[in-house]
Amino acid sequence: MDKQALLKKMKWQVFLLGKFKIPLLGYTGLKLVEISDTTSIVKIRLKRRTKNHLNSMYFGALAIGADVAGGVHAFYFAQKHNKKVSFAFKGMSCEFIKRAESDCTFISKDGKKVEDAILKSIATGDRVNETTHVKVFDAEKELVATFEMIVSVKCKN
Q1: Do the bridges between strand 143-156 and strand 128-137 make them parallel or antiparallel, or are there none, so unpaired?
Q2: Residues 106, 107, 111, 112, Cα dihedral to 10°
Q3: What is the pLDDT of residue 1?
Q4: How big is the CA angle at 47 (ends 41 and 48), to the nearest 5 degrees?
């Protein structure tokens, strides 16, 4: 499957996930911009649904963006390796550097770590935890927050 077709399929799956399984994804209007073996990029627009009382992006919206950017690789590689995966976040820490007063882009470059965790889970049958990092940038490409997410995966089959 070529990159464009794969991206289109993953965008559709994120949309369906937000529509039927995790409504907050759909509520924020989160968009998957790019996904590859190493990188995932997600965008959330600053709008009424994602703003706080200070007119900056609400913490919950930032956490949702980091959740998807850090976790979408689990679905990507499960599909790539034709496996069913049980996936959750075991922990999260974050640092807010400045207020996010515009649309935000969430970037994770830890796809290889997630793939290695999935491959290890396939080999051992055990649940595997891996730490991924997500950086959040505003419209001016300034770093506004960093997230450290502990991804927990277990492959079935």
Answers
A1: antiparallel
A2: -150
A3: 67
A4: 140
- DSSP structure class, residue 53: T
Phi, psi of 121 (to 5 degrees): -65, -40
pLDDT at 149 over 70: yes
- Whether the pLDDT of residue 157 is over 70: the answer is no
Reported as a single tens digit per residue, the pLDDT across 80-124 is: 888 899 989 999 999 999 999 999 999 999 999 999 999 999 999
What is the residue-averaged pLDDT of the chain?
Answer: 93
How far is it, in rounded angstroms, from Cα 91 to Cα 66?
Answer: 12
Exposure letters 38-50 (e unless 16+ CB within 10 A, then b):
eebbbbbbbeeeb
Q: What would the two tokens of residue 28 be?
A: 């924020």
Distances (CA, A) of 108 to 1, 7, 70, 72: 22, 16, 6, 10
Residue closest to 130 by CA, chosen among 116, 111, 110, 150: 150
Mention the CATH class of domain 3-156. Answer: alpha beta
